[in-house]
Give the backbone structure.
Amino acid sequence: MHQEAFLPARRTPACASPPSGILTPAEPVPAAQDHATSTTERGSFCLARCTCGWSGPARRSRDLARTDAERHRTGT
């Protein structure tokens, strides 16, 4: 029987800022013409991605992933 190695959870200090280039909800999304979104399959999940580097959450529903991509592209 195969057992996975136990790895402790990584903790990030509360004061740590996100790496540069990652948009936070408070930051405005750049203009829609700068974005080309697509969806990618990863196992049984579908992810929305953008040419600006944004990536949506993994979804089991392709339709929800496409909706995430459209919301990102339009800035809503």
Q: What stands out?
A: Residues 67 and 76 are 11 Å apart (CA to CA).
